[in-house]
């Protein structure tokens, strides 16, 4: 495990902001920049702008609005982390949305907080995720875990669908379940990112689901005995 990162006034946490409301971005920037160990190095109001600016700025933490006019912060999180695996993403949203929380976790987000959070708590959350720790809204997370346990009927019965997967597709599904990005899966399995995308498209079709996060939930069934011997070499 990597050592927790430490930051100081001389080596501050470099923060990038994504929110489509300029007033919100300015407020967040003023709040965070007032802290001696935090420096806001850039911001964006759209998904395209964030994907263009973020990698060039090399932030330590990205504070990302979940819902945006041209997309969502969760896909930005996934893409930025595929280019910068050390980046900590803190998702910020007005909505107490269990599905978005699960999506954020699977995209590799380090934290998920509601915009109603107090300023001092947001500063603490930025420091927490920058140090390599998780900062997920505990009430929402607990409710999500309860709903997943309480509603197994909402998850399709999958043994036969899993049996239709090739060994490579099962490997990839397991890694999706661990929250890895396409790029990280490719590195782990020595495949190109395009090949990984093609495999994922096929396995989603075989599992009868449309979204990556649904496949991630189904990945827990790979612990079944009939999946033995198909782990990645």
From TrEMBL:
One of its GO terms (biological process) is phosphorelay signal transduction system. GO terms for molecular function: DNA binding. SUPFAM superfamilies: C-terminal effector domain of the bipartite response regulators (SSF46894), CheY-like (SSF52172). The modification 4-aspartylphosphate is found at residue 65. InterPro entries: CheY-like_superfamily, NreC/VraR/RcsB-like_REC, Sig_transdc_resp-reg_C-effctor, Sig_transdc_resp-reg_receiver, Tscrpt_reg_LuxR_C, WalR-like. The keyword Lyase does not apply. Residues 14-130 form the Response regulatory domain. It comes from the Bacteria. Residues 158-223 form the HTH luxR-type domain. Keywords: DNA-binding, Phosphoprotein, Transcription, Transcription regulation. Pfam families: GerE, Response_reg. This is DNA-binding response regulator.
């Amino acid at each position: 495990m990597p050592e927790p990162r430490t930051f100081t006034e001389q080596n501050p946490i470099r923060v990038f902001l994504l929110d489509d409301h300029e007033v919100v971005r300015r407020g967040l920037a003023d709040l965070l920049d007032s802290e001696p160990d935090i420096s806001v190095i850039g911001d964006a109001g759209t998904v395209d702008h964030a994907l263009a600016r973020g990698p060039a700025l090399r932030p330590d933490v990205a504070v990302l609005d979940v819902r945006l006019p041209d997309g969502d912060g969760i896909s930005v999180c996934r893409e930025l982390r595929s280019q910068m695996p050390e980046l900590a993403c803190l998702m910020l949203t007005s909505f107490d949305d269990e599905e978005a929380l699960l999506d954020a976790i699977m995209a590799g987000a380090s934290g998920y907080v509601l915009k109603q959070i107090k300023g001092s708590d947001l500063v603490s959350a930025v420091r927490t995720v920058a140090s390599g720790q998780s900062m997920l809204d505990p009430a929402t997370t607990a409710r999500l875990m309860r709903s997943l346990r309480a509603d197994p009927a909402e998850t399709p019965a999958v043994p036969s669908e899993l049996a239709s997967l090739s060994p490579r597709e099962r490997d990839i599904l397991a890694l999706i379940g661990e929250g890895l990005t396409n790029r990280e899966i490719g590195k782990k399995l020595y495949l190109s990112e395009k090949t990984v995308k093609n495999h994922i498209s096929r396995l989603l079709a075989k599992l009868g689901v449309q979204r990556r996060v649904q496949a991630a939930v189904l990945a827990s069934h790979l612990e079944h005995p009939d999946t033995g011997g198909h782990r990645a070499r």
